[in-house]
């Protein structure tokens, strides 16, 4: 169950990272409330996952899922660069996440 918590925490991290862009410096109330709620849920789920998963592994995967998802949504929603070398580097993060999951004791 810890891996499910961790994956969901990563998804909520994507939510708050993208949400930050829409808060306009925390001046827009609805995006700000949704962003802060995503932060709380993300950290809460990460905390649950850390009950059984090693800190270094869980944190790396949490940030990795957040990073990859944020880049994908940045490309899709915000028109950010989809340059091949950028995507290749994101691919390396995905490989790292998969590797950490494969070698994890939990």
Protein model, in words:
This protein has helices spanning 2-23, 29-49, 55-78, 84-103. By secondary structure, the protein is mainly α. It has 4 helices and no strands. Helices cover 82% and strands 0% of the residues.
Helix run count: 4
Give the ordered list of helices and strands.
HHHH
- Rg result: 15 Å
Strand content: under 5%
Task: Please tell me the total number of domains.
Answer: 1
Largest sheet: none
Distance linking N and C termini: 10 Å
Q: What class do helices, strands and sheet pairing give?
A: mainly alpha
Features:
106 residues, mainly alpha, 4 helices, 82% helix
Concise structural overview:
By secondary structure, the chain is an all-alpha fold. It has four helices and no strands.
List the helices and strands and how they pair.
Elements: H1 2-23, H2 29-49, H3 55-78, H4 84-103
Helix pairs in contact: 1-2, 1-3, 3-4
